[in-house]
Amino acid sequence: MTGHYCDLSNSDVFLTIGSNNVECHPVSAKWVQKAHDKGATWIVVDPRFTRTAACADIYSPIRAGTDIAFFGGMAKYILDNDLWQKEYVRNYTNAAYLLDPGFDFDVKTGMFSGWNEQTKSYEFSTWGYQVDETIPADASPTGAFAWTTEDGVPEFTPPGNKVPKKDMSLEDPQCIFQIFKKHYERYDLDTVSAVCGISVETLELVYKTFGSTGAPDKAGTIMYALGQTQHHYGVQNTRAMGVIQLLLGNIGLAGGGLNALRGEPNVQGSTDMGLLVHNTPGYLAWPTVAKYPNLRTWLDLETSSGGFYTNKPKLFISQLKEWFGSNATLQNDYGYDWLPKLGSDNDVTTMSTFELMNTGFIKGYFLWGQNPAQSTANTKFAREAMSKLDWMVAIDIVETETASFWRAPDLDPATIDTEVFLLPAALPFEKAGTVVNSGRWLQWRYKAVEPFDQAKPDLEICDLLWKEIVKLYKDEGGANPEPILNIKWDYDIDGKIDPRAVAQALNGYVIEGKKLLTTFGDLKADGSTASAMWIYAGFYANNDAPLDPSEQKVGARGREDKGGLALFQQWSWAWPLNRRVLYNRASADVDGKPWDSSRSLVNWTGDAWDNNDVADFVASRVVDGAPTPVAPNNNAFFMNWDQIGRLMIHSLDMPVPEHYEPFESPTDNALNGRENSPMIRFADKESVKKGTREEYPIAVTTYSVVEHWQSGSQTRHCPALVEAMPHQFVEVPEKLAEERGIKNGDLCRVFNNRGSIHVHAFVTPRLHTLLINGKEVHQIGLPHHWGWASMYSTGDVVNDLAPNVGDPGSYIPEYKAFLVDIEKA
What we know:
The chain is of the alpha/beta class. It has 21 helices and 33 strands. The chain is globular, with a radius of gyration of 27 Å.
């Protein structure tokens, strides 16, 4: 979230899309209701009429997978009706920048300029800015890292950045504003209505209502979840929402922002920790073989010429120092060569993992609190791939479908030689440590009881395995020993690994004396500081009580609320630096005056900043040894090198969001001549087994119910929850039920090329039969929580049906829109 849960109470208009937050994120709904009680308007856009929709002022159905068409139409409506926040867009976005004259989009082919058919990827030369002035060769950007050679002589290699040309009138036909506006000319109300299945009247009401937040004294927020992201263009769905919020001037405001409601209690913490394959902890780039062969190359390519990321060398070298300790020196590039490197295609994500198992490349598999035999896309193929493993280690609180994958109805245990080890893990309240919620708030969770029987916390399991691996390497040797034997692993307290020691490592410290740091601004690139997670610097920084979490910021429970904006700065700690609203410089105009004085986050008084939140910009600099205020400027997005928000960007698959149909779609693409995004991942794999709309005419989306959680492996072991929601089911719109002779409670077969499941029918008006491009299209809904591994409630695995194709940036599967057929069983 760019804001946080409590900040939702500051909004004037809410747009919930791809999320059923009343049921799935009830804490968010609490704060939405506070604003709703004060007169805020709540819009819900969802394929189903959910319990969230029941609370809304405006509800709109939508065909799953058409969100970019929906937001493209909104962008056109905002611009055509002069609803955009002009001063914000001119000064805080790249709208005025002139784009390369070679940029183009071919509507007939659905392709942007720069496509390379050999590599199946885009080249970005025509997506860049026009430039006219080179940075002087002897100029080092302010705050940039000066590389130091062995003899201590500073060096700096200027990146050669050039100053982009701009037209502040926004009238030049090559400025991004005009190109952006032209791109969405096709997205008129009638076309978007036909693509999305939303009536023109409802569409215009939604656009007009949310567009009203473009007024400087208004704030609108978008809340979204997996309904937006689980598509093969999920990143661009998110980009489309961000672009809308930039046009309306809603990013950085109290009550504004783009707020992802994360799918699990600590999923924000897991992504922070670098569990995404292309990131290190703290969202730095994980090295690849081809792009970053050595540390110098990583630093040259990753260090920005402007903005905060001029400091990347300080962040990365401090991270290497935490990983390798005293073994990491300037002479050996701080252990950079010991890091395992990704291949050039980064193709080691979940879906690709099963392809590699299927070919025999991957022989062993660790599963830490996940259940892909039930939860991944095309689970039938995933289980078949697992059957070719030599061994698997499942670490979980119960025996899941994955831990017992050989029991799947589609497999023969007699043909499977995989050896499976199940290690019992502690429950959340049986272990201590930090959790991070959707709003980036870190809170210390205390252990309530000891783990049951032989169960152990994940951290302890990891520690025991690691120490034994190191012992084996020391005693017996092994391949590539340096990364194993040179790791710094000193997190024991009283002879046992302790999350408090890990917290100190994450926070960061000066190595000599191990003084904990209060800010990542004190990290150095000379090897004198260590930090495993630069964004957490300050969360565990009390040097007087390093073993007492209650005395650390992460354990804070104060209820003071400076400014009266529900920031609650003394409750827990939000990364980075306890900042509650990201990009908060944009909450004030170029002169530093708040757009709305009643929602003031930052304010320039004429000679100093008077802020209610931690500044997300350079508010002061040290001059002659003393902090000196920095006068207002337009650097509102200082994590970018140009320090502005971007209506158009360099991204893997498209510079501006463009509608493509789901991998399996009930209709042709009405907005351009291409069906799917050209950068869709894994669509060429034999395992995918694409179906056609002639074979499988029914659109389906998957979702969660409030009574069960994720793969159901925990909740389906709770009798009370099973009693509340005992069976798998399929939601069927009334018109489709009538056509197929299906009645409420009938056992139905839902099937496609990948799988076939049996579920009970729930005939309901909550799902609509939609008019799409002049033709009726039925949508059905399937909750995904069931499998065979439960003593109380079992059912077929819905994800057998989902296609294992994904987004080129996030690699997320397309769970939310594909094709099936349905019949009475």
